[in-house]
Amino acid sequence: MTRDAGASAEARATAAETLERAAELDRQFGRNPDLTAMPMYCSVFSLKNWYDAKDMRSTGGNDVNFAMDAPRVDSPDIAELRAKGAIIYAVATANAVG
């Protein structure tokens, strides 16, 4: 996914990437997915950057500017949302930790 250049800015997928992910889910599960198994199907989410999203840059709420600081894996909450069909669109930057 495309990421914004500044770590202090909100990390986000482009609208086109979000629509592409929705289309992938539709191709995989069809027009009538099992909403009991995937109750968040194609719901779009933004999260705070202290939650890890494997394809989104994050600083964990710290004031840093790494070249590429995306975590290797999702945090358990984000992994569960994705497993239930959610699409992660943005990571909002926390302005302070502690």
Give a description of the structure.
The protein has a 3-stranded mixed beta sheet with strand order 1-3-2. Helix 2 links the parallel strand 2 and strand 3. It starts with 10 loop residues before the first strand and ends in a 6-residue tail after the last strand. It is elongated and about 45 Å long. It has helices at residues 15-29, 76-83, and strands at 11-12, 44-48, 87-92. The protein contains 2 helices and 3 strands. The longest helix has 15 residues, at 15-29. The chain is of the alpha+beta class and 98 residues long.
Write the layout of secondary structure elements.
Elements: E1 11-12, H1 15-29, E2 44-48, H2 76-83, E3 87-92
Give descriptors for this structure.
3 strands; 23% helix; 3-stranded mixed sheet; single chain; 2 helices; 98 residues; alpha+beta
Termini separation: 30 Å
Overall pLDDT: 79
Please state the CA-atom Rg, rounded to the nearest Å: 14 Å
Beta-sheet strand percentage? 5-15%
Give the structural class. Answer: alpha+beta
Count up the helices. Answer: 2
Give, in spatial order, the strands making up the sheet with the most strands.
1-3-2
Let me know the number of strands. 3
Low-confidence stretches: 1-10
Strand count, sense and barrel status of the largest sheet are: 3 strands, mixed
| Helix-strand pattern | EHEHE
What proportion of the residues is helical, as a percent range?
10-25%
Overall, the morphology is elongated
